[in-house]
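Ticket #580: bound-state structure for magnesium ion.
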Amino acid sequence: MSFTLHGLGVSSGIAIGRAMLMSHATLEVAHLTLAPRQVDKEIARFDAAVAAVKQELVQIKENTEHAPAELAAFIDIHTMFLEDSELTDKPREIIRERRCNAEWALVQQMEHLVQQFEDFDDPYLRERKFDVIQVVERVVKELLGHRGKASLKAAKTSRDDALIVVAHDLSPADTIAFKDHRFAAFITDVGGATSHTAILARSMAIPAVLGLENGRALIRDGEQLIVDGLRGVVIVNPDPRVLDEYRLRMEQIELEKSKLKRLKTARTESIDGLSIALHANIELPGDVPVALESGAEGVGLFRTEFLFLDRGDMPDEQEQFEAYKKVVKGMAGRPVTIRTFDLGADKDLNPEGTAGDRVKTNPALGRRAIRLSLAEPKMFQTQLRAILRASKFGPIKLLIPMLAHAHEIDQALAAVEQAKSSLRGEKIVFDENIPVGGMIEIPAAALAVGLFLRRLDFLSIGTNDLIQYTLAIDRADEQVAALYDPLHPAVLMLLAHTISSAEKADIPVSVCGELAGDPELTRLLLGMGLRCFSMHPSQILRVKSRILKSDVGELAPNVRKMLRLDEPAKLREALEKLNA
Ligand code: PEP
Ligand code: MG
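RESOLUTION: The complex was predicted; output attached.
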């Protein structure tokens, strides 16, 4: 039966593919008691499923040669578990002795093992319980006859058979782990438009619809789906007419994309000759080729915390250095803005940790970003030294997130000095004049921007958090997503004040939040005086196309007038006129 679900379209585009339900398979197994004569057959069914999953893991490993090394390591651990008698012999015994069906026997044994792992003192061993769960989920899915992830390779060959991830929720850590899998789309029941999960979907340039509420409960594995990321619509089991319509739309989108590609080498200049810089936001060194492909003039935001978000531990100085160097060398002389870790909030390093490790009730207002870095001086020094060492290989700018207080800026600058001095002591070469800038993403920072302008070399406005904190809207909460309004007059005032203050002080300023990549807001930002935008590579050519058709001299007075408006309807009307 065909039906439609509505959610929050957070990454535009259209995907047609098959649903792949994420995890929780283990929670849903049937509990059956077998007749004695069924036992041998059930054990054989169990053995066949284990063998199939082993084969599946071998295939995954072969198909992911470009994936991070940790992925291969995870697969090895999973294979090892599958060969362990705890997961092979024990479930067989349970099937024979308790006459349970294979799925139920396996889940019982999993629960027993999880309990054992939870009792370990060693955090690494404790973490392994997740591997047990994942392995068991694979086997349960196989037993239930669901399509496994090993079919990824085959799925890639046919557009309509692409896989669409259906999940209740995806943490940024889950999402980053998918970067290599080339899923066709994401849909989740929860999540807001500027949650990091949404941001990652946009950075992968795949459609995503979040906040569907009941998607995971209503959609079955393998069902055909159309995901319309622009309208925030998911059509389950579409009828042929609707499919044809969407296939046509997909072709139109492809056509538009290939037209935009022609702009790649064009200079980014307004009609009246103003030169505008368009930079890329990246999460991993592997994003550099896409940034270059989109014609980015530099990296305006490298969110370094994604380097280790899906692995649970921090990379050491050498590993970080290698990652930063790779980006800088990859960008071949173009500037690279590296932001120090913005951990905390939804990007919790230890989501399953004990209460003490976990972020607090109001994580976005808690010990996040620079607050965490200053509280963990060793971690901060490691990162600063790694960034400074990479600065030998090309122009790096150092960006500090979530600053609010003058003393935080001073402490961060002192930490940079300390890292420099330790490197000098070791005779390690780095850029002595590395520019240090701050994110303006807390309303206090935007209002008291003078503090920042006097201390820092550049500013970058993080509108995702600036809007969240100005309007008191959790950016990851779909229940308040409709109130997350970039055009709220208070947001516009803070933006305009920051940009014009930086201009007066002759300090470079950019916007690196999601606003910068929205072509509908390009003219508004140009009119406020913004000359540097940083966004997902997938948006760069769209924004460029808008700039090429804009006369900044003409629109600036209109934007000034617009900023005097505080009626939302009038503001929207004025924006429409600006974009006409
Ligand atoms: C922002 O807050 O706008 C920003 C760019 O940083 P992040 O999205 O990583 O919080
Ligand atoms: Mg931010």
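RESOLUTION NOTES: The pocket of phosphoenolpyruvate (ligand 1) is lined by residues 199, 301, 303, 342, 441, 462-465, 512-513 (CB under 6 Å).
TICKET STATUS: resolved
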